[in-house]
Design a protein that fits this description.
The protein is mainly α and about 400 residues long. Helix content is about 55%, strand content about 5%. The chain has helices at about 5-15, 20-35, 35-45, 50-55, 65-75, 80-85, 90-110, 110-120, 125-140, 145-155, 165-180, 190-195, 210-220, 255-275, 275-280, 295-305, 310-315, 320-330, 335-350, 385-395, and strands at about 225, 235-240, 245-250, 285.
Amino acid sequence: MDSLNINSLLKSVFEDRPVPNIKALFDSKLEEYGIAKTKALKLLSIDKDVFEEIVTGTAKQPNLIHVVKLAEFLEIDINSFIKVVLNNQSVDNIASIDSARKTTFLLKNFDVKTLTKLGFFQSNDNLDALVKKVLTFFGFSSIQDFEEQLEEPLYSRTKRNFSDKMKDFWIKSAYQTFKVINNPNDYDRNRLKDLIVKIKPYSQDVDNGLFIVCRALYNVGVTVIFQDYLSTTQVRGGTFIINGKPCIVLTDFNKKYPTIWFTLLHELHHVLFDFEFIETNRFHLTGDDDLFLIEEKANSFARDFFLPEEKFQYIKKYIHNPYLVSKFARENEVHESIVYSFYIWYQDELYGKKYHAAFKEFLPAYSNSLKKLNPVSWDEESIKVTSERIKEILEIK
């Protein structure tokens, strides 16, 4: 049997094309077989009134067995016959099928309870309002468009291997944002390599540094956006390859300024060295299970870029002298918070010493570095509007 889904069924109902007349087809068969209607219905074990309800569309819930028997009697493919039966159905029956479709769509793709707590949905939203909200947010006019233009491109090459709907929501939001931005600049790997070596000093400028670097990356074909973290997802960032161009999404996973820079360099390593792998899989998330053993190399790259171990060994003796740390940071062209952040990490990694709560007074407000990037948040009305705003600020005119 050919595949049949509610989308195609509902679409067939609203198509402006002639619909076969079941009664006329039935009468034709009676004539062909030389049999009376009463006798035929008796042989088919279908009550006369039930038959009339099916052919006139007044049956509230047409019996599937009767529908199959009639299709067989009329020698019509069952999928085609179901469409014919639906075309005869009342508006209420069609609406109930449409509601089933919307319910399945929501439950399959969205964690409605968590998104309501987040404020994305309103607690008093009914089914139609919930569907309208997600379609408007992602920029689609129908459920079918959502599935064909978002679900299928993302997961067509790899099986969706997680059940976390919030993570799926985060991924789809980033993907759709990149699609709308549609960076017109060609990706140039050599220009990216030349650019990366110049990035470090910009970490010292909390208000403008990240924004300037993101604009420069956009110019060499690498689109970087910032998207709000979603609780429970554990995603620090991700790299997508869309239309042959790398796209990076950052998030405020632990709400620390040094982590944003570390994640950016981590993702840029993936762009340089894991491009084909990510292109095959559409995207790679930092924070997921490292099933392909590519995370540690990206982490090492980012650490060595900002503060290799020999630098830590030097500064650890002076870590409680703010003046010397500040001087050391300037000489190494990094923000001092990055020095403190890596000091904490190396102490834990090399000596098992925990300093997680230390040096908080040297961490700048990470949100100041994001203001000019127009982060994607969950109270946005439409990704399209947000994406066009991001594109406008990233383009160098």
